[in-house]
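User: Reviewer 2 asked us to show a designed sequence for the structure in our supplementary figure. I'm pasting the C-alpha cells here. Could you produce the per-position amino acids so we can include them in the response letter?
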C-alpha cells in the first residue's frame, strides 16, 4: 500500500520504519527542515508568552537544560539500542540531555533508511477521506495515513479569574528556556506533572521564592510551615493584582512571574472532524486509542501519555502496519463500536475525566500486550516492566535526583 505519514518526529520515523518493514510504500511529510520533531531544540520563544496567539508558532517546547525523565535503555526502539552499537553512545548518562535524543533519532532515520522517504518543508494542509480505501493528502492519493504530528506544541492555559490584571510576567512552560530571567523573583508555577517539578527546581536556583501549585498538593501544609527551595500549595483560585489567591484561601503576595505548566492541546487542523474530533482534549471515536472506529485506515500514533513513548509508538505503528498488510483482521464495525463504547463506559464509571482518557500510566503494559496479542507481536518483555516499575519508584522517592541514582534493572542498551 501507499501510506502517508504526517510528521518526522519520533512517532513518524518509527511508523515509517515499521511500514517499510511490512512492505508498504511510504511518504513522510515534515513541515520543518529536519527530522526529530520536538527534539529539535529552538532557543527562540513566541511573541505571545502564553502561546495562545503567537505570530509564529515555535514547534519545540524543550528548555535548554532538559534531561529526559526516563532511562535511555527503557526508551530505546526495539532493535535499535541507545548505545554505541545502536544510535547512542555507551558513555552517555542513563538519563541523557535532550540533544542526545535528537542524535539518536537522526541516526535511526539514516540507519533504517527512513530519511530518503521524508519530504522536508512540506506542511500538510488537507487530509481527506475519499472512500474506505482512498485518502488524499494535499491532493495526492494514498491508501492509508498515519497521523504523527505530536501534541506538545499548542499550550493549554486554563481560565483563572483576574489573570488579565496580573502585572507580572505570565507565560506557559512552552516558552521557557532558561531560569536567568527569574533571578531574585517570587515565582508561582501551576501544574504538578514532570515539567512543573523540573522547572520549579531549576528556577529555585536563582529565584527568591518558588511556589508550585497543583491538584496533587490540595492537602499541602500551610505555606508558612514549609521549608526548602520549593513550597507546594493547592490550586490557584484567582489573581488579585500581583497576589495569587489559592483554593484554601492562602495568599502569595508580590508575585513577579507566573508559569503555566498545564499541558497541551491535541490539534489536527488538516483533518475533518468526521474522522476524529477533540472534546475536552480527548480524541474521540478511536478503536484501541489508535484508529477511528469508522475509518481504520487512518492511525493516530502516540496519543497516550504517562507512558514510555518511543516503544509505545513502535508497537502502535507495528500493529497498524500489520493490519494494513492483512496480517490480522479487525473486528467488524459493530464489534468495534461496542468495544469503544464499553471502554468509554468503564472510564466514565471510574470517574476519569475526558481529558485523562488517553492517560495510561501503569496500564500501558496491558495496553501494549493487547495490541501484541491482536497483531501477532511478542508481549512486553519482563525487563521492560521491571525497569519501568523501578524507575517510577525511584522517581517518586527521589524526585530531585532520580536521574543521577543507579537502577538495578537494565534493558538491552549498554549503560555505565
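Assistant: Here is a per-position design you can include in the supplement:
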Amino acid at each position: 500500500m501507499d501510506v502517508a505519514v504526517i510528521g518526522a518526529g519520533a512517532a513518524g520515523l518509527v511508523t515509517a520504519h515499521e511500514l517499510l518493514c511490512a512492505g508498504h510504500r511510504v511518504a513522510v511529510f515534515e513541515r520543518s527542515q529536519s527530522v526529530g520533531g520536538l527534539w529539535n531544540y529552538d532557543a527562540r520563544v513566541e511573541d505571545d508568552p502564553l502561546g495562545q496567539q503567537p505570530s509564529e508558532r515555535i514547534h519545540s517546547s524543550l528548555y535548554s537544560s532538559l534531561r529526559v525523565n526516563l532511562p535511555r535503555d527503557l526508551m530505546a526502539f526495539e532493535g535499535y539500542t541507545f548505545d554505541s552499537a545502536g544510535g547512542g553512545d555507551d558513555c552517555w548518562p542513563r538519563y541523557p540531555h535532550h540533544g542526545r535524543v535528537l542524535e539518536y533519532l537522526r541516526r535511526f532515520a539514516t540507519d533504517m533508511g527512513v530519511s530518503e522517504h521524508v519530504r522536508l518543508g512540506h506542511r500538510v494542509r488537507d487530509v481527506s477521506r475519499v472512500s474506505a480505501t482512498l485518502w488524499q493528502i494535499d491532493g495526492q492519493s494514498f491508501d492509508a495515513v498515519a497521523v504523527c504530528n505530536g501534541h506538545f506544541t499548542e499550550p493549554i492555559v486554563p481560565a483563572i479569574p483576574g489573570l488579565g490584571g496580573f502585572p507580572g510576567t505570565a507565560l506557559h512552560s512552552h516558552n521557557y528556556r532558561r531560569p536567568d530571567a527569574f533571578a531574585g523573583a517570587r515565582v508561582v508555577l501551576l501544574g504538578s506533572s514532570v515539567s512543573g517539578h523540573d522547572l520549579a527546581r531549576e528556577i529555585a536556583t536563582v529565584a527568591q521564592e518558588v511556589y508550585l501549585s497543583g491538584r496533587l498538593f490540595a492537602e499541602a501544609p500551610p505555606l508558612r510551615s514549609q521549608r526548602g527551595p520549593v513550597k507546594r500549595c493547592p490550586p490557584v483560585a484567582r489573581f488579585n493584582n500581583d497576589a495569587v489567591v489559592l483554593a484554601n484561601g492562602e495568599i502569595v503576595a508580590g508575585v513577579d512571574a507566573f508559569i503555566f505548566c498545564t499541558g497541551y492541546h491535541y490539534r489536527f487542523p488538516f483533518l475533518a472532524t468526521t474522522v476524529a474530533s477533540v472534546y475536552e482534549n480527548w480524541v474521540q471515536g478511536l478503536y484501541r486509542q489508535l484508529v477511528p472506529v469508522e475509518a481504520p485506515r487512518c492511525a493516530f500514533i502516540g496519543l497516550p501519555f504517562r507512558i514510555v513513548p518511543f516503544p509505545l509508538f513502535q508497537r502502535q505503528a507495528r500493529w497498524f502496519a500489520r493490519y494494513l498488510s492483512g496480517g490480522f483482521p479487525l473486528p467488524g464495525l459493530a464489534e468495534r463500536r461496542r468495544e469503544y463504547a464499553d471502554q468509554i463506559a468503564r472510564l466514565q464509571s471510574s470517574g476519569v475525566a475526558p481529558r485523562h482518557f488517553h492517560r495510561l500510566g501503569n496500564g500501558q503494559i496491558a495496553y501494549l500486550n493487547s495490541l501484541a496479542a491482536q497483531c501477532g507481536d511478542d508481549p512486553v518483555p519482563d525487563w521492560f516492566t521491571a525497569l519501568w516499575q523501578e524507575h517510577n519508584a525511584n522517581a517518586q522517592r527521589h524526585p530531585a535526583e532520580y536521574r543521577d541514582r543507579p537502577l538495578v534493572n537494565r534493558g538491552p542498551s549498554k549503560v555505565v
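For the response letter, you might also mention the following. Helices lie at 10-21, 72-75, 98-111, 194-203, 309-324, 333-349, 364-375, 382-397. The CA atoms of residues 91 and 416 lie 6 Å apart.
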